[in-house]
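[Help] Beginner question about ligand-bound structures

Sorry if this is basic. My supervisor gave me a protein sequence and a SMILES string for NAX and asked me to "get the holo structure". I don't really know what that means in practice or what format the answer should be in. Inputs are pasted below exactly as I got them.
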Amino acid sequence: MQLIVDALFGAGLARDLTGDARALIEAMDAHPAPVVAIDLPSGLDGDSGAVRGAAPSAMLTVTFARKKPAHLFAPAYVGDVVVADIGIADAIVAQLRPRLFESAPALWRDLFPWPARDAHKYARGHAVVWGGAQMTGAARLAAHAAARIGAGLVTISAPRDVWSIYALWRADILVEPRDELGDWKRTLEDPRRNAVLIGPGAGLDQPLVAATEMADGKQLVLDADALTAFAGHALPRGALLTPHDGEFKRLFALDGADRLGSVRRAAAASACTLLLKGPATIIASPDGTAIVSTNGTPYLATAGTGDVLAGLCVGLLAQQVAPLVAGAIAAWLHGACARRVGPGLVAQDLSERLPAILADLACG
Ligand SMILES: NC(=O)C1=CN([C@@H]2O[C@H](COP(=O)(O)OP(=O)(O)OC[C@H]3O[C@@H](n4cnc5c(N)ncnc54)[C@H](O)[C@@H]3O)[C@@H](O)[C@H]2O)[C@@H](O)CC1
Ligand SMILES: Nc1ncnc2c1ncn2[C@@H]1O[C@H](COP(=O)(O)OP(=O)(O)O)[C@@H](O)[C@H]1O
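Answer (accepted):
No worries, everyone starts somewhere. Holo just means with the ligand present. The predicted complex, written as structure tokens, is below.
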């Protein structure tokens, strides 16, 4: 069997490839033999995963000590990744003060909000979701996810005209009618209602900026229409924002070759935690710490899955998980649910897979 071992360039590549090196890489990529790359497929920028001229698509990449950003951001080029131990101690890696982490249970298991033995529902937080008048499915998907991830109570504030659609749907979600913004304010008055999600199916004709301002002092997730509504307005500091690329670009500059840098800059500029969705979902806090979740599947590319993710986020915030960690846990669990469903996934399937995945996690 033929095998190509690519050991030309590694993670330190600092310029675009030209000449003989580029020709060699292109020949490698065109050859039918599988490529095993050492450290990184030659031509990938180690910090961003961007292709600097040309890079082969490896079947396997063997790297050392710790994954580099490109291993997370360029899955189509790195293939399967093996981290080989060559004797670099964890303490040495720690001295480098890494600011980028991969989301996996080992990273956050100790921070997961398992209920205390003497917990009562109010101790597990109360999430409030803004319901829209037309796309009622989005807020319902989010509310269900918030309840499944463990929020003690979940309330949807629903326009009175469609209140019955929400109220007749599930017995475990509370529904309060809303005629005008004053009703929303009253829904938020109880300080135990500590986490709020605005955006999924919210309606761009609605006063979403004012509704967000009324949630001042609560843990906040802004998604979908709420992000669109904030274009040109100062974002609420401390919120968790969960855009897809389209929504991100309405608020911030997105450099496709440097998604990590773009998300970090957006988080710093807005003083919010940013979660940019995609095959590699990036979560960054204003201080530059970033976590990447890569366990999603392309079957997530279907309507409503982002609404589920926003619901997981607000459910975790209700349980007093910090925004960066909440985003990292939510994104990983979202991917794990998608894997359990497999092909044929629709958004409603995701939350139904959570109990089994949480049970596995709880068992360690
Ligand atoms: N069951 C439901 O009721 C659902 C309601 N939804 C709601 O529908 C409203 C509109 O949501 P949209 O997501 O269509 O938002 P928008 O219509 O605001 O944005 C979509 C636009 O952004 C562009 N874009 C660029 N990169 C993208 C990416 N990676 N993913 C998606 N779009 C990208 C698209 O080309 C498109 O033009 C929101 O309120 C949303 O919550 C959707 O979430 C689907 C499910
Ligand atoms: N190719 C893909 N690989 C992995 N995850 C994906 C892929 N495409 C979409 N996703 C995930 O699916 C979700 C889609 O969210 P979003 O675009 O907000 O959809 P919606 O608004 O319909 O709910 C995000 O969590 C995103 O990361």
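A couple of things worth pointing out: DSSP finds 15 helices and 14 strands in the chain. The longest strand covers residues 153-159. Feel free to follow up in the thread.
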